[in-house]
Every structure is written in C-alpha cells, then in structure tokens.
Amino acid sequence: MDRKTASGGNHTYIRRLLGIAILLVAGGIIYYLFSPGESSLFPRCPFHTFTGLDCPGCGSQRAVHHLLHLRIKDAFTSNPLLVIAIPYILICIYLEYFGGKEKYPRVRQWLYSKKAIYTVLLVIILFWIGRNLI
C-alpha cells in the first residue's frame, strides 16, 4: 500500500471517529438536559405501546439520563441490564476501535465467540421474560 492510500484511510478513520464523537456528545447533551420520561422528544417503545409489556430495552433512555446525572440506583431501576452491560460494551469498544484487538486477541476472540454471543442472547431473553413476570 502506498503512502497516499494509507494516509487517505487514516483521514477517513479520523473523520469517522470525530463524527461518532460529535454524535455521542450531542446525544449526551440532549439526554442530560431532557428527561425521556417527561419529554415527547424521545421515541416510545413500539413493543410496549402495542403489548403493554416491557422489552429488554425499555427504560434504557431513562437509564442513560440517570447515568449522566450520576444517579446509579435510578438507572439500575430503569433498566438493570443496560447498567450491568456497560463494562462489557466498553471492553468491546476498546477491543474493536482502540487497539485492544492487537494487544488482547484472546480476550476479543472469547468475547466475540459463538458461546459468548449465545450467552448474551440467553441473558437478554431471560431478562425480557423475568422483567414481565415480576
């Protein structure tokens, strides 16, 4: 690969990373300033609207709002699965986008294995069923 191609790829990566950062900051500001439970700015869950039951993601917007205000207990009450999943999500982001896959290939292989994916799916399904039974 010549320098021009490598440089262009690097600029594209930086632009994408910058774009993602801008979207995250803008979204964070919106979620910090407005409460999803009180504002019509945020979409409602279609599954909950049609069935009256909670999906695994129900309460995630409120949980994000609470986390941004450092109200961990309220965030956990809104959606415990989201709060518990944050370390897993952050590790996966590090491994995928910040050089972790080169430093820790075995961890990445384990977190993205078929067994790990099925485990995450099972946890989501059990959470979905459990939150509607309690």
From TrEMBL:
InterPro entries: DUF2752
Record keywords: Membrane, Transmembrane, Transmembrane helix
Transmembrane segments: 12-34, 76-95, 116-133
Protein's recorded name: DUF2752 domain-containing protein
Taxonomic source organism: Dysgonomonas termitidis
